[in-house]
Structure formats: structure tokens, C-alpha cells
Design a protein that fits this description.
Blueprint: H1 2-22, E1 27-29, E2 37-39, E3 45-47, H2 49-57, H3 62-71, E4 73-74, E5 89-94, E6 100-108, E7 111-119
Parallel strand pairs: 3-7
Antiparallel strand pairs: 1-2, 4-5, 5-6, 6-7
């Protein structure tokens, strides 16, 4: 019984530490030195006409955009948290068919707006206005 009383605090600290490591972050800090964060769980996802056109030209589908929203890396140099009417966040990552893309997201009161998507390695012919 003495051994259990001795080990119990150690076990509790260990379990608490593991649970903190496994906890999933839903927001990502952007622009170092800023207290602003990006909520990856904002729904619904709203695609602008321009974004749909660019997605079509670059053969990128909604599931790939959503993958970048969840797993993409914020590019601070292309992100503008002071943009009006809503901040713009540039997230980058690889699609399942290995395209390296940047997606510009704008969280708004209506949901997560997809502004555009850019293939960072291939120049696509596109007539989007």
C-alpha cells in the first residue's frame, strides 16, 4: 500500500503530461509577436467564384483545399491579418497528387472564405477574371 501511495503522484503527473502532448491544437498562432490566431475549424467553407475558377484551372478539388486548411503551414510573409474587410491567411502544403499549393483563406462571420489557390511549382493556363 505504501508503494502505491508513493507511485500515485508520479503516475498522475505522467498521465497529465501525455494528455497534454496528445491534445490537438485547433488554432495556429500567426505573425510572431501577435496575439492573433487562425481557427482552422471555422465552418462552412465558402468558395469565391475566383477560387472555384482557379481550382478548376489547377485541377485542385475541395478535399485538397480542406486538407490544406487542416494541415497546411501558415506563410507569415503572405499573410495579412490587417486586411479589410477580413484578415487573409496564406496556408501552404502538398496535395494528395503532390502539387505544392498556397491557399488564401479569410475567416469571416459567415464562415471560412477561400479567396484563391496558387500552384507554387507549375504555371497553369487560366482565363479567370
Amino acid at each position: 500500500m505504501k508503494r502505491i501511495r508513493f507511485l500515485l503522484p508520479i503516475i498522475l503527473v505522467f498521465v497529465a503530461g501525455i494528455s497534454l502532448l496528445l491534445q490537438r491544437e485547433d488554432t495556429v498562432p500567426v505573425n510572431k509577436g501577435s496575439d492573433t490566431s487562425f481557427n482552422r475549424n471555422l465552418r462552412p467553407i465558402i468558395y469565391t467564384k475566383h477560387a472555384r475558377c482557379r481550382m478548376d484551372c489547377r485541377r485542385i478539388d475541395e478535399s485538397e483545399i480542406e486538407d490544406i486548411l487542416v494541415q497546411g503551414v501558415v506563410n507569415d510573409s503572405k499573410t495579412n491579418i490587417h486586411a479589410k474587410p477580413d484578415p487573409k491567411y496564406a496556408l501552404e502544403g502538398r496535395t494528395r497528387d503532390n502539387q505544392l499549393i498556397r491557399v488564401i483563406f479569410a475567416p469571416s462571420a459567415k464562415g471560412m472564405v477561400v479567396i484563391t489557390c496558387i500552384d507554387l511549382e507549375t504555371e497553369w493556363s487560366c482565363d479567370c477574371k
